[in-house]
Each structure stands twice: as structure tokens, then as C-alpha cells.
């Protein structure tokens, strides 16, 4: 580990990626890390035993990739459990900027001063997560450090560059005054106000100056109004502007990239590899092991080898381990069929490395890579780009097309039967002089010679990859395709050739084979033939003369003379074929012409007359057919009318009829009591519904539309239709509609308001059981909507109402849409949308499905688990799509275990089909609710009172709360809406005698718990003192539990 760390970072100033320092013991010399000034990814320091972290010159951590998706700097477990060795001092005295991500410092037994650092001065994002656990061995800072330091020495004080700046500074500074502000492109501080005084750059470094972007390849000329080539153009390479990309990178527009995007292909122009758009289908680029779709794969195996079918380029690495070749029983992967390895015969480039540590026993070579031309080495395996290790069965490599190893070393060890490797001139394949070839413990070359395992005599001294003339690196004489030959077929052979340097190329198929010492062709193409096989048209040999070929302005006709040369027909000739001798010609239905005007078989005038007559006949027939069809159509229409055939054919959709009932209420039946809230579309009141002709009074919520007519009224009618169609315990039910001048929607009254406010106000009294029950209830309500093909589109905690602590209901169908039987999705028009709750396909394409509701469900659960937290708080709405596309998601709530958080993450998958169904979510949270303390870690005080012990008590809690919501009215006839809507059947009064009840252990436990919480209940029902006599009488009629009866009588 230490050797690879030193080899990778010695004399390194900028780390393009992550810096991971792990498992280093205390006696190692780490001074080579002092040269590092910048890390583009994250810094991980873990499981080490050294005393000091020598990154004293590190100024900036960019955090383009974060550890565990949250941290740019992670330092933990740096001590030996059974000793006194471990990290004692960070030594990051020049670290002044972390552009993205937070800081995690914990479980460093001997570390001092980490908790004295003002980390918020270093971290750019104020919302980034910061967790620094103080150590028990803290030593004081030097008195000149003002209590903030990296170590106890005087030169270890922390330098503040943000929190001490003047208000006018929009970034960092080098002093407290207005004139001490750094340039806005500076990162990590500066020594002056100019863009060349920065210690590091926020965006790009252009020859020492910090700029927003590098000089572009084309600039606009305002004089000529055209884009012109920019002679100062540079490419972006990480955070730097460079004139030329590294040789193992490719140029895409104005950037140096590791691989071209999917709609471009890689070409080389003027020795520069560039990405250009594909004209048709791009060469297939596939992800390698450890990248893209194979991010978690460790080797090529039977489960993933089909992903490499027809691949021409591997973007990443190819790794062959024993678990891939012989199978991995632990993961249920069978052994590899050697025939399936032939998929790699189409591969001609690997951008990373090729690692072969296992191979089928019946395959004695690597011939499946016979078309592999380049190993890029953009990613290396411990500095190696080609590794072949411990293969007892391989006798030859057979990389016959390999022409370049762009970066990295070659490592060929312990291959007991391998020959030919020592003949290869490896340096001719390398791009740099620093590349090396390491070969040990392979078969002795002397034994190979004794077994006649040597290069073919046609191979040059450059060596070969295996036996035969097709395995040569270069040929001693000539090359035909991939095979070396002694001479080209210039004068004999079935296929005649010509020599282009040392390459033998075939003559064109229209060349006639010559005998003797005369060559058939002098070069490539039909114009290089010595003699034509058929005809000659100008300089080119052709199979036949042009006959009706499209020219620039007209068709071209030619005929062949006696010497088989093609000549143009006379201008008056069109078609026909003249043949014969002398002046006698005959017509035989072909095409062509004679050489003079009097030999034309079809004059242009005659052809024009015949063509005109033909067109006139066609036109007359068309008119006749049209008139006839119109007459028939009129007769059929008249007959259908007379026979009353007006019934349309049946096209049943299979959708069940909507038998929901919508009540039309009179305005005199409704009484408004108190305003609950108001918005752009109207006002919501608490009220009472007194059905006409009855004495009952039902607490309701009344939504009054602010405008009586127009599109908004139509929207409210759609609300009424959808809400009247649902009937589920966890969906708010519509009681009726009042068609007054201002439309009124009447729904059930939810006493405790919305769930978002509820969890925020009672967060200290909410336990894990209650939270998981809510998750189940929301999932079941949404599952009901999904079964009814209803997409909600606005699921959030604010749109979930609390009937009681044990009973919640989903509401606000203002965005809901009902899908037809054959619809899978709904495409919305314009309008404001709750972006932070929406799936990515909803934001981009306004496409809503049940699976997009699953995404919103995940955000809703996150709101509950954070007790009313705001998703993506502090992030502008316009940045949400970019954040989601980069893979960022809401963080794990502190109370959630990884099991609960993984359910949320599944809801936020980019691929909608990969998200769980509501039925699966309901089942999963039901399982968790049976053991809530295992999945949610919440410390709740003894005064927790939000879960009633039984459904009866819960119902009484609701009724008592409803009493407090209404004015003092005659409430003797007050009735819950659901009770009123339940059909009334015949009921018998209970008998006057009583029996000895069965002892229920749950009831005993609940009664004990009730007695222990007397003080809490008295506080909850202190509102009793404010009730009227009729309200108290109503409460007495409801109470059946002895404890509540005593409490009510006290009232």
C-alpha cells in the first residue's frame, strides 16, 4: 500500500481524482505528500498509525466526487487499538477552501486541535454536512492563534479567509478591509486583488490567471459578423487551460476528456485524438469493469459477458479473475463457457488496462483479442496497463493487431508455458520513455526453441505474438492483409496484386489478368488497369457502358464500339439497342443506340407523343373512377339513412363504470365557523353541515372558489369528480358540492391540520411506531389510487391531513389526473409545479405516472423523518434538475437506519421502472412497523402522549378536538361525517346484565400505561374547563373507558 501510494503521488502537485491514504503504519516516510497543492475529488485518511498528516501545502479540495456522497474530507479510525500510536496532528495549515461537500472527523483517539478549526470558514457551501467529534486529548493552541490551530506550534495557526472579510467581498480576502478582497475567481485565498494573485482558482487556471472559462476555439468577429478561429484557444484539462491535451486523453470541442460521449466517435487528425459526431451509427462503446453499468462488477463473468457483444471499444478496463472464469458460487454465478469469450474478437481498443489473472484451461492463447490495436492506459492497475499473471495453459499471446500501449507498464509473470513474449519489441508499442516491461518466471526461451516455438521466417526482427506468418509484428518481405508473404502476386495467382511499399493490394475486379511478365494493374482503382476485363469508359474499366445514368442535367446513354470503349449516343437518341454490322441494325428490346443520327431507334418526337397520349388516358380513367366512387358513396349513405343504421360498432374499453355519488348541497345546509386558510383559488373554512330534514350536525371543511365561472371553476369540478370517486380510509372523502354563485366543495374536517405542521409542532413527542404507521397509511392510500388508475401529481406532507395521531388521510387532488384504461402516463401542460417533490421525468418532460408518485412518496417520507425538514433547502429550484442528474439525493435523516433510507433511495431512481410499487412499499413499511425501534432511532421523553392506546380512545380524542374547533353551539346532535355516511341497519340495545370479561393482556398493559400517564392526559384535556354544559354531556355519552369517564366527570 505504501509503495503504490508513493509511486502515484511522489512529485505530484495536483491530484486529478481522489486522494486515499489508508492502512499506513507509523514508521513510513510520508514527506513526498508535501508537494500536493490541490485535490479535485475527496481526501480520505483512515486506518493509519502515523503521527502527522504531511499535507501542509494542500490549499484546496474541489470535491467533484464525495466520500459516501457527502464528504470532501474524511478522517477516521487513525489509531492502533492496542497501543499508543495514531494520528495526533492534521498538519493542514494551508487548507483554506473546500468547494463541495462537508467534513467528517471522528474516532481518532489521539488527534488534537481538530475541533478548534473554524471549518465553516473553509467549507464554501453553508449547507454542507460538518461532523467533527472532539478528542479527549486536546492540547491548547499557541496564544497567537486565537484558539484556532492545526497544531500547538506557533506556525500552525489557522488562517481565516472568509469569515473575517468585509461585507463588500463576494468571496475570500487577504485582510479585513474593503480593499483586501480577492478576485471573484480566486479559491482558497489570495495575496492581492488581481486574478493572478490567487492561491487557487474556483474554475480554471489560464497560465497563472484565474478565469471563468478557457479561451474558446472560435470567437465572434463583430466586424465580419462571423465566428473565426481563435489563435489563443486552449483546452480545459481539469481546472487548467492547456494548449495540448495529454496523449492518453481525447479532445471534445474544447475539453480534454477520457472518452467521447455516446453520439460521437474517436478519430485521429494530425496526431490528435478528437471526438467527432457520427455520420451514421457510431462504433459501439461499452463500459468496462468498474465503470458505468458495470460499476460494481469485479471481473468478467457469465452474468455480464453479454454486455460486450459487438463492442469495438471498451471504455474502462477488462479484468479476468478466477471467480469469473471458474464461477462464483457465493453469488450464484456459474463457470464461464470458453466459447463466450469470442465476443471480444470485435474489440479494437481498451481505454483503461487489461488484467488477466485467470483463463480457461482449454484455451492456449489470447486469440480472442486478435483485433485489439490499442491499450490506452487512461486508468492503470498499480501503474500497469497490461497484466498477464500465473497462466499455466497459455503458450502464446496472439495480440497480432496490437500496435500501441499508450501509458502504463507491461507485467508478464509466472506463465510456465508462454513463449514468443521475449521476441516482441515492446518499446515500439510504448508512447513514452518512462514505460517499462517486466517479465519473469515464464518459459525459458531455450526450451521454446527446442520445441520449435519460434517466429515464422517471414517475420522481421521485431518479433511475433505466436506461431505462423500472421503473428508477426512486422514482415521481412511483404504483407498481404495480416499475413506476411515472400512476394506479391504481380504476374501470377488467381488474384493479381500490386505492391504499395511492403503491402500487397488487390487489383480492381474490372482489370483483365495479364500473362507473361506484364502486370495486371499499376495501382488501386479501376483507372489503374493495364487492360479492361469488359469495357472502358474514359480512363475507368467498367462492367457495362452507362445506360440511362443520371447526369448533372439529363440522363446519359452510351454504346460500345468494336474496341470495347464506351461512346455517347447521339443527342436525338433515347432508348433501344442497336446491333448488327455495317449499316444494318435491328431492335431487340434492349437499350442503347448506334453511332449516327439515322440509326436512332426511338426519336424524341415520337416518344413525346406516346408519353402525352398515355398521360391523357391515365387522367381520363382517374376522373371516371372518382365520379363513380362519389356516386356509390351517396347511394350507400342514403340507404343507411333509410334503414336507420345509425348504431356505432362496439369498442368496449374494459373500464368499470364510475358509480360514485356526488351530493348537491343547499347553501342553507352549510354554516361557516372559522377561516382555515386562503389562496389564489379561494378560501377554506371550518364549518357545520346540517342535512335538510335531519337534526344531526356534521363538522366539515368548506372550500369556496373565488371565481364562479371560467377555467378555474372547471378545475374545481374536476376536483369534485376525483374526490367523489375515491372511498378509502386514508383518502379525504368529498361529502358534497354546493352550486352557489361561488362554488363550494364540502369535505371531511381533519381536526389536526396537515401532517407537515403536525410533525413540526410535535417532533419531541413522536415515536418510531407512529412514523412507520404513517408511512404505511400513505402507501396504502396511494396504492388505492394506483389501482383506480389515478395519478396524484402533488403528494407531499402538506397534502396529508391528520384526523387523529393514529389516522391520516391524503388530500388535495388539485393536480390529480385520471388515466384511461389504455393510458400509461399523463403529459401535463404549463403551470407551476412542486419541483422539489417531482421526479426527473416530470421536470423535463411533464410526464406523470404512478411511478412518479413513488418519487414524491420518498420525499414525503423524508419530510416525516426530518420532522418537517425542507427538501433541498437553500438550493434554487432551477438547479434541482442538474443536481438530480449528477446523482445527488436528499441526505439520510439522523433518525433513519440504512434500511429505511435505502427504501427512500429506491424511490428516487432515475429509471421509473426501477422504483418500487406502492404495494411493495406498504408491505415493506408494515414489516418495519412490527419492530419500529430496529429501524428508527428516536429518544422520546416520558411525556409522549400522541398514540392513544386503542381505537376507541383515538376516536374520542378526535371528537374532543373537534369540539374545540367549533363555536359553542348545541352539539347534542353532533355526528362524524363517516358515521353519517354509513348505511343504518337494524340494531338491538345491549342487554342489561353483564358478564365476566376475558382478561386481555394488551388491555391490562394499556390500563397500566394510562395510569402512569395521568399527568400527561390531564394536560391534554385541560381544555375541558372551557367546555359548555352540552359539550360535557356529549363527552360523557362518548366515554366508555373508566379512566376517561372519571376525567370527564371532573370536567
Largest sheet: 6 strands, mixed
Termini separation comes to: 75 Å
- Contiguous low-pLDDT stretches (5 residues minimum) are 576-592, 595-599, 644-648, 708-713, 818-824, 941-972, 984-1051
Strand order, largest beta sheet: 43-47-48-46-45-44
Oligomer: single chain
- Number of DSSP-assigned strands: 54
Number of helices: 20
Strand fraction band? Answer: 15-25%
Radius of gyration: 42 Å
Q: What general outline do the C-alpha atoms trace?
A: globular
Structural class: alpha/beta
Overall pLDDT, averaged?
Answer: 81
Helix content: 10-25%
Q: Gist?
A:
It is built from 20 helices and 54 strands. With 1051 residues, it is of the alpha/beta class.
Keywords:
1051 residues, alpha/beta, six-stranded mixed sheet, five-stranded parallel sheet, 20% helix, 19% strand, globular, disordered C terminus, EC 2.7.10.1, transmembrane, receptor, membrane, nucleotide-binding
Please tell me about this protein's structure.
By secondary structure, this protein is α/β, with parallel strands linked by helices. It is 20% helix and 19% strand. It contains 20 helices and 54 strands. The strands form 19 sheets. The protein has a six-stranded mixed sheet with strand order 43-47-48-46-45-44. Strands 2-4-6-8-9 form a five-stranded parallel sheet, with no helix packed on it. A five-stranded parallel sheet has the order 22-23-25-27-29, with no helix packed on it. Strand 32 and strand 33 form a beta hairpin. The protein is globular and about 120 Å long. Keywords: ATP-binding, Disulfide bond, Glycoprotein, Kinase, Membrane, Nucleotide-binding, Phosphoprotein, Receptor, Signal, Transferase, Transmembrane, Transmembrane helix, Tyrosine-protein kinase. Residues 670-936 form the Protein kinase domain. InterPro entries: Egfr_JX_dom, Furin-like_Cys-rich_dom, Furin_repeat, GF_recep_IV, Growth_fac_rcpt_cys_sf, Kinase-like_dom_sf, Prot_kinase_dom, Protein_kinase_ATP_BS. Residues 983-1009 are annotated as: Disordered.
Amino acid at each position: 500500500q505504501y509503495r503504490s501510494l508513493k509511486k502515484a503521488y511522489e512529485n505530484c502537485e495536483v491530484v486529478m481524482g481522489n486522494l486515499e491514504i489508508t492502512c499506513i503504519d507509523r514508521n513510513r516516510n510520508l514527506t513526498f505528500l508535501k508537494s500536493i497543492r490541490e485535490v479535485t475529488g475527496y481526501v480520505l485518511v483512515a486506518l493509519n498509525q502515523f503521527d502527522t498528516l504531511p499535507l501542509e501545502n494542500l490549499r484546496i479540495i474541489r470535491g467533484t466526487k464525495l466520500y459516501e456522497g457527502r464528504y470532501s474530507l474524511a478522517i477516521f479510525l487513525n489509531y492502533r487499538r492496542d497501543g499508543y500510536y495514531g494520528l495526533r496532528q492534521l498538519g493542514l495549515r494551508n487548507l483554506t477552501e473546500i468547494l463541495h461537500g462537508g467534513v467528517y472527523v471522528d474516532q481518532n483517539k489521539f488527534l488534537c486541535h481538530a475541533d478548534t478549526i473554524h471549518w465553516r470558514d473553509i467549507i464554501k457551501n453553508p449547507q454542507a454536512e460538518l461532523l467533527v467529534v472532539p478528542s479527549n486529548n486536546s492540547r491548547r493552541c499557541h496564544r497567537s492563534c486565537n484558539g484556532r490551530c492545526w497544531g500547538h506550534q506557533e506556525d500552525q495557526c489557522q488562517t481565516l479567509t472568509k469569515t473575517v472579510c468585509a461585507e463588500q467581498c463576494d468571496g475570500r480576502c487577504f485582510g479585513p478591509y474593503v480593499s483586501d478582497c480577492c478576485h471573484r475567481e480566486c479559491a482558497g485565498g489570495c495575496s492581492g486583488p488581481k486574478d493572478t494573485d490567487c492561491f487557487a482558482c474556483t474554475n480554471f487556471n489560464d497560465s497563472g490567471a484565474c478565469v471563468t472559462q478557457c479561451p474558446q476555439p472560435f470567437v465572434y468577429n463583430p466586424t465580419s459578423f462571423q465566428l473565426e478561429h481563435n489563435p489563443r484557444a486552449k483546452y480545459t484539462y481539469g481546472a487548467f487551460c492547456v494548449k495540448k491535451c495529454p496523449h492518453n486523453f481525447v479532445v471534445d470541442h474544447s475539453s480534454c476528456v477520457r472518452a467521447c460521449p455516446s453520439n460521437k466517435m474517436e478519430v485521429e487528425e494530425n496526431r490528435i485524438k478528437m471526438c467527432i459526431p457520427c455520420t451514421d451509427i457510431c462504433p459501439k462503446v461499452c463500459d468496462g469493469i468498474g465503470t458505468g453499468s458495470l460499476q460494481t462488477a469485479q471481473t468478467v463473468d457469465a452474468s455480464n459477458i453479454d454486455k460486450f457483444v459487438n463492442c469495438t471499444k471498451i471504455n474502462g478496463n477488462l479484468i479476468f479473475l478466477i471467480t469469473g472464469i471458474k464461477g462464483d458460487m457465493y453469488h450464484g454465478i456459474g463457470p464461464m463457457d470458453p466459447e463466450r469469450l469470442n465476443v471480444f474478437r470485435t474489440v479494437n481498443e481498451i481505454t483503461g488496462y487489461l488484467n488477466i489473472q485467470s483463463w480457461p484451461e482449454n484455451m492456449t492463447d489470447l486469440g480472442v483479442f486478435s483485433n485489439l490495436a490499442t491499450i490506452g492506459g487512461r486508468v492503470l492497475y498499480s501503474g500497469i496497463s497490461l497484466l498477464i499473471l500465473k497462466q499455466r495453459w497459455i503458450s502464446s499471446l496472439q495480440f497480432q493487431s496490437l500496435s500501441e500501449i499508450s501509458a502504463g507498464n507491461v507485467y508478464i509473470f509466472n506463465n510456465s508455458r508462454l513463449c514468443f513474449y521475449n521476441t516482441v519489441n515492446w518499446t515500439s508499442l510504448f508512447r513514452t520513455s518512462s514505460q517499462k516491461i517486466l517479465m519473469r518466471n515464464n518459459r525459458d526461451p531455450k526450451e521454446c526453441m527446442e520445441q520449435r516455438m519460434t517466429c515464422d521466417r517471414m517475420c522481421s526482427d521485431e518479433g511475433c505474438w505466436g506461431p505462423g506468418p500472421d503473428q508477426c509484428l512486422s514482415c521481412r518481405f511483404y504483407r498481404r492483409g495480416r499475413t506476411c508473404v515472400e512476394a506479391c502476386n504481380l504476374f501470377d495467382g488467381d488474384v493479381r496484386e500490386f505492391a504499395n511499399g511492403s503491402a500487397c493490394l488487390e487489383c480492381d475486379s474490372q482489370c483483365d489478368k495479364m500473362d507473361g511478365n506484364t502486370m495486371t494493374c499499376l495501382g488501386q482503382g479501376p483507372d489503374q488497369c493495364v487492360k479492361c476485363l469488359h469495357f472502358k469508359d474514359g480512363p475507368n474499366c467498367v462492367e457495362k457502358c452507362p445506360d440511362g445514368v443520371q447526369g448533372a442535367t439529363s440522363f446519359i446513354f452510351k454504346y460500345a464500339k468494336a474496341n470495347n470503349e464506351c461512346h455517347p449516343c447521339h443527342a436525338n437518341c433515347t432508348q433501344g439497342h442497336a446491333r448488327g454490322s455495317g449499316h444494318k441494325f435491328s431492335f431487340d428490346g434492349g437499350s442503347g443506340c448506334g453511332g449516327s443520327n439515322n440509326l436512332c431507334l426511338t426519336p424524341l418526337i415520337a416518344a413525346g407523343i406516346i408519353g402525352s397520349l398515355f398521360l391523357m388516358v391515365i387522367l381520363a380513367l382517374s376522373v371516371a373512377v372518382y365520379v363513380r366512387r362519389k356516386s356509390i358513396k351517396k347511394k350507400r349513405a342514403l340507404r343507411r339513412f333509410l334503414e336507420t343504421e345509425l348504431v356505432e360498432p362496439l369498442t368496449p374499453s374494459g373500464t368499470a363504470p364510475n358509480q360514485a355519488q356526488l351530493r348537491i348541497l343547499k347553501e342553507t345546509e352549510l354554516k361557516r365557523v372559522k377561516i382555515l386558510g386562503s389562496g389564489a383559488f379561494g378560501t377554506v373554512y371550518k364549518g357545520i353541515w346540517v342535512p335538510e330534514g335531519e337534526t344531526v350536525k356534521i363538522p366539515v371543511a368548506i372550500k369556496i372558489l373565488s371565481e364562479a365561472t371560467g377555467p378555474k371553476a372547471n378545475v374545481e369540478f374536476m376536483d369534485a369528480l376525483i374526490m367523489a370517486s375515491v372511498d378509502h380510509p386514508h383518502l379525504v372523502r368529498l361529502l358534497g358540492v354546493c352550486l352557489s354563485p361561488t362554488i363550494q366543495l364540502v369535505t371531511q374536517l381533519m381536526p389536526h391540520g396537515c401532517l407537515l405542521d403536525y410533525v413540526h409542532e410535535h417532533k419531541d413527542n413522536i415515536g418510531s411506531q407512529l412514523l412507520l404507521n404513517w408511512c404505511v397509511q400513505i402507501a396504502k392510500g396511494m396504492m388505492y389510487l394506483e389501482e383506480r388508475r389515478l395519478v396524484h401529481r402533488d403528494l407531499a406532507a402538506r397534502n396529508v391531513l391528520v384526523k387523529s395521531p393514529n389516522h391520516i388521510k391524503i388530500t388535495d387532488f388539485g393536480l390529480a389526473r385520471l388515466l384511461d384504461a389504455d393510458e400509461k402516463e399523463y403529459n401535463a401542460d404549463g403551470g407551476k409545479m412542486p419541483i422539489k417533490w417531482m421526479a426527473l421525468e416530470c421536470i423535463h418532460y411533464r410526464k406523470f405516472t404512478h411511478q412518479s408518485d413513488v418519487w414524491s412518496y420518498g420525499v414525503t417520507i423524508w419530510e416525516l423523518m426530518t420532522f418537517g425538514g425542507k427538501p433541498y433547502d437553500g438550493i434554487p429550484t432551477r438547479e434541482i434538475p442538474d443536481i438530480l442528474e449528477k446523482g445527488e439525493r436528499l441526505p439520510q435523516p439522523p433518525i433513519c437506519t440504512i434500511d429505511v433510507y435505502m427504501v427512500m433511495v429506491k424511490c428516487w431512481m432515475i429509471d421509473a421502472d426501477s422504483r418500487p410499487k406502492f404495494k411493495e412499499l406498504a408491505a415493506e413499511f408494515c414489516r418495519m412497523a412490527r419492530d419500529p425501534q430496529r429501524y428508527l432511532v428516536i429518544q422520546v421523553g416520558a411525556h409522549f402522549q400522541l398514540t392513544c392506546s386503542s381505537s376507541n380512545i383515538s376516536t374520542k380524542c378526535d371528537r374532543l378536538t373537534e369540539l374545540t374547533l367549533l363555536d359553542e353551539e348545541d352539539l347534542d346532535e353532533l355526528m362524524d361525517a363517516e358515521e353519517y355516511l354509513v348505511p343504518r341497519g337494524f340494531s338491538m340495545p345491549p342487554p342489561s346484565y353483564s358478564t365476566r370479561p376475558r382478561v386481555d393482556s394488551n388491555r391490562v398493559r394499556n390500563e397500566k400505561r394510562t395510569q402512569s400517564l395521568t399527568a400527561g392526559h390531564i394536560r391534554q384535556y385541560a381544555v375541558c374547563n372551557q367546555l359548555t354544559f352540552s359539550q360535557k354531556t356529549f363527552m360523557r355519552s362518548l366515554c366508555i373507558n373508566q379512566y376517561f369517564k372519571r376525567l370527564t366527570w371532573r370536567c
